[in-house]
């Protein structure tokens, strides 16, 4: 089933995100994690792509192909374009096709310090249009409930998101957030702007304090008082912190599903234990709407 059709069913789509092994670790080092995630039968698994768009590294493509072949679970390969040329992208599209991967999360990517962007693709919408013109792929995109850091303001960001959807993106995955109200306001604005594709909520189960600090710096997610209190209370007790992070994520998901969210995308951080605890906790909730 293709990604768009998943959202037509009478249930909430549940998906995971993984990243390729870091540093010199071989690709095989992620296989145990994938085995565990595969058992949980998510609707799809997306695989991130190196920040600098390292075109020599084909791990994303290999892992996305492996997920589909080994577990018969749909995968989405992330693909960034700001440091890529048309030739780079053509080669990657060919590699994806040869592995039977036809779902792409089209991204601009962050501009790497000291690296001049190539001029072929300025925005994710340019990549989405390029892929759609080639044909044969389903294209997803990213969105930002708390506004993308480079955007002038929320209105410009939504207008730019509409351009991306008009370019062919037919499914969006949101940046992580900890305050559901922020997400509801964002979805409302997107719908008013005529963005009618499914919008999945990105949920990051926070399991340690360092991780939160990194995330907040990286993506500027605001932290509700309830969340801050939990983190302060359990700092120094890793097990309690992990359990509290899992419980917080489950609580967010229940509220999102009750409010009719299209899908939940869990940033697993390659941690199958946490993914399992959350998936089991929300199994009956996401699988059937009342
Ligand atoms: P765009 O949609 O191009 O938007 C970037 C900025 O440009 C925004 O401020 C937007 O308002 C503005 N803009 C967009 N279009 C126009 C236009 N036509 N005219 C003027 N301004 C415009 N990064 C990675 O390196 N690898 C990954 O695998 C990865 N996965 C991600 C997955 C998700 C779900 C999310 C939310 C982010 C991910 N990122 C990843 C991070 C992402 O690459 C960065 O946030 C990047 O800075 C923006 O990418 P984008 O595709 O959202 O860009």
From the helix content, strand content and strand pairing, which structural class follows? alpha/beta
Tell me the radius of gyration. 18 Å
Mean pLDDT: 93
**Regarding CATH, which class?**
Alpha Beta
Strand order of the largest sheet: 1-2-3-4-5-6-7-8
Provide a count of the helices. Answer: 11
What percentage of the residues does DSSP assign to strands (E)? 5-15%
Bound molecules: flavin-adenine dinucleotide
Alpha-carbon distance between the two ends:
23 Å
Can you give a write-up of this model?
The protein is 46% helix and 15% strand. With 290 residues, the chain is of the alpha/beta class. It has a single domain, classed as TIM Barrel (Alpha-Beta Barrel). Strands 1-2-3-4-5-6-7-8 form an 8-stranded parallel β-barrel, surrounded by 5 helices. Helix 5 links the parallel strand 4 and strand 5. It is globular. The mean pLDDT is 93. The site of flavin-adenine dinucleotide has 24 residues, from strand 3, helix 5, helix 6 and strand 6. Pathway: Amino-acid biosynthesis; L-methionine biosynthesis via de novo pathway; One-carbon metabolism; tetrahydrofolate interconversion. Pfam families: MTHFR. Keywords: Amino-acid biosynthesis, FAD, Flavoprotein, Methionine biosynthesis, NAD, Oxidoreductase. Its cofactor is FAD.
């Amino acid at each position: 089933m293709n990604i768009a059709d998943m959202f037509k069913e009478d249930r909430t789509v549940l998906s995971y995100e993984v990243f390729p092994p870091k540093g010199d670790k071989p690709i095989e080092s992620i296989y145990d994690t994938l085995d565990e995630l595969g058992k949980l039968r998510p609707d799809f698994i997306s695989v991130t792509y190196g920040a600098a768009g390292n075109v020599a590294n084909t791990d994303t493509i290999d892992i996305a192909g492996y997920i589909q072949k080994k577990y018969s679970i749909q995968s989405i390969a992330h693909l960034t374009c700001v440091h890529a040329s048309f030739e780079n992208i053509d080669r990657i599209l060919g590699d994806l096709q040869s592995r039977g991967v036809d779902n792409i999360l089209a991204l601009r990517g962050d501009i790497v310090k000291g690296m001049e962007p190539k001029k072929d693709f300025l925005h994710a919408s340019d990549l989405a249009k390029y892929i759609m013109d080639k044909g044969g792929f389903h294209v997803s995109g990213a969105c930002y409930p708390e506004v993308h850091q480079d955007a002038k303001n929320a209105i410009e960001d939504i207008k730019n998101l509409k351009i991306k959807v008009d370019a062919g993106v037919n499914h969006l995955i949101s940046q992580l957030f900890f305050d559901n109200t922020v997400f509801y306001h964002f979805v409302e604005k997107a719908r008013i702007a005529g963005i009618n594709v499914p919008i999945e909520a990105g949920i990051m189960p926070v399991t340690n304090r360092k991780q939160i600090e990194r995330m907040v710096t990286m993506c500027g997610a605001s932290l509700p008082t309830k969340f801050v209190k939990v983190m302060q209370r359990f700092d120094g007790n890793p097990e309690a912190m992990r359990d509290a992070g899992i419980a917080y994520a489950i609580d967010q998901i229940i509220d999102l599903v009750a409010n009719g969210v299209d899908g939940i995308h869990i940033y697993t951080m390659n941690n199958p234990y946490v993914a399992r605890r959350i998936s089991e906790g929300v199994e009956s909730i996401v699988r059937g709407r009342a």
